[in-house]
From TrEMBL:
It is an enzyme of class 1 (oxidoreductase). Transmembrane segments: none annotated. Pfam families: Iso_dh (PF00180). It comes from Mammaliicoccus vitulinus. InterPro entries: IsoCit/isopropylmalate_DH_CS (IPR019818), IsoPropMal-DH-like_dom (IPR024084), Isopropylmalate_DH (IPR004429). Substrate binds at R94, R104, R132, D217. This is 3-isopropylmalate dehydrogenase.
Length: 346
């Protein structure tokens, strides 16, 4: 089976970090002997410049027909029209592909623990994933309206919506340390009661995975006082939004963290959590780690090559440990030097 990948370099540092990552994928595929077809498409600001819209039909069509999408970053100060923004392409793709599950790993190794604003002893060896429900809850529930004397948002979840995100969390946990922590506000919210009840139900299908429940207020504390206790955290849209931003400070650099978004059957999308970093674009300064770790997730989840994924993750962290790192990590290497070192280690 030849897997299809669509590459969307986007704007700012996006093209620099994606181009090098695709070369790494090429080298890895030879070592681990797997095949893939890759097409590159315009997306974001560059697509506005060339085609008048951030998500041209041809780009969306390619994404729909692929197994995985690798995205650099979109946006920048150049695109100021509020009605035609690069970021609209991102929302469009999430909606068109029904990407309901957002996955954000937080990893702190020995070589990166000193970068964290938190104590090294607290963060060292942290390795957890937040699974955030992305298409339901307060952001989309009806009724939703704004009047001068009253405004309403509705927090609604169906059993089906909770069940499908729960399966994503349990499947990830079964391949890891086999603990799911479900985060809710069950003591006050009806939607959280259904959430907890449904998680319990789904957990029966995964007897080797332990399910814990935690209230969101407690979780926000635990996340920065004892992040090592977590394996897979699963939560609804708003709680996930807040907790994943809180988690993003743990590793100490935006340039380190990857993410993935999963749909029902269609393609999954992999992108670093950072933006297009226009202040350093085109200067060969960007840290490619977040992009490379997103590629590792893609290799594991969409190309089904777990050993290759692990190899890439190990190399990314070992390279930093060996002192080859960009400025944001306290090093003095360029993006291309980091890529070269990684390629040599494959
Ligand atoms: P967006 O709105 O697109 O999320 P943002 O305002 O959050 O963007 P980023 O583009 O993520 O901002 O950049 C924030 C800061 O972090 C910038 O100073 C940028 O240079 C730095 N930064 C982001 N990504 C990287 C990276 N991969 N390597 C080095 N520095 C980075
Ligand atoms: Mg941002």
């Amino acid at each position: 089976m030849t897997y299809k990948i669509t590459a969307l370099p986007g704007d700012g540092i996006g093209p620099e970090i994606l181009k090098g990552s695709i070369e790494i994928l090429e080298t890895l595929s030879k070592k681990f002997q797997f095949e893939y077809d890759l097409v590159t498409k315009d997306f974001g600001g560059i697509a506005i410049d060339k085609h008048g819209e951030p998500l041209p039909p041809d780009t969306l069509e390619a994404c729909r027909n692929s197994d995985a999408i690798l995205l650099g970053a979109v946006g920048g100060p150049k695109w100021t029209n509020p009605k035609n923004r690069p970021e609209h392409g991102l929302l469009g793709i999430r909606k068109a592909l029904n990407l309901f599950a957002n996955i954000r790993p937080t990893i702190v190794t020995e070589s990166t623990a000193h970068l964290s604003p938190l104590k090294e002893s607290i963060v060292k060896d942290t390795d957890f994933i937040i699974v955030r429900e992305l298409t339901g809850g307060l952001y989309f529930g009806e009724p939703k309206y704004f009047n001068d004397d009253q405004a309403v948002d509705t927090l609604t979840y169906t059993t089906d919506e909770i069940t499908r995100i729960a399966h994503i969390a349990f499947k990830l946990a079964s391949k890891r340390n086999k603990v799911v922590t479900s985060v809710d506000k069950e003591n006050v919210l009806s939607s959280s009661k259904l959430w907890r009840q449904t998680l319990e139900q789904v957990s029966k299908e995964y007897p080797d995975v332990t399910l814990n429940h935690l209230l969101v207020d407690a979780c926000s504390m635990h996340l920065i006082t004892n992040p090592k206790q977590f394996d897979v955290i699963v939560t609804e849209n708003l709680f996930g939004d807040i907790l994943s931003d809180e988690a993003s400070v743990i590793p100490g650099s935006l340039g380190l963290s990857p993410s993935a978004s999963f749909g029902e059957n269609g393609p999954s999308l992999y992108e670093p959590i950072h933006g297009s970093a226009p202040d350093i674009a085109g200067q060969n300064k960007a840290n490619p780690s977040g992009m490379l770790l997103s590629l590792a997730m893609c290799i594991r989840e969409s190309l089904h090559q777990p050993e290759c994924a692990q190899h890439l993750e190990d190399i990314v962290f070992n390279t930093i440990k060996n002192g080859i790192a960009t400025k944001d990590l306290g090093g003095n290497n360029s993006t291309s030097e980091v890529f070269e070192a990684i390629k040599q280690s494959i």
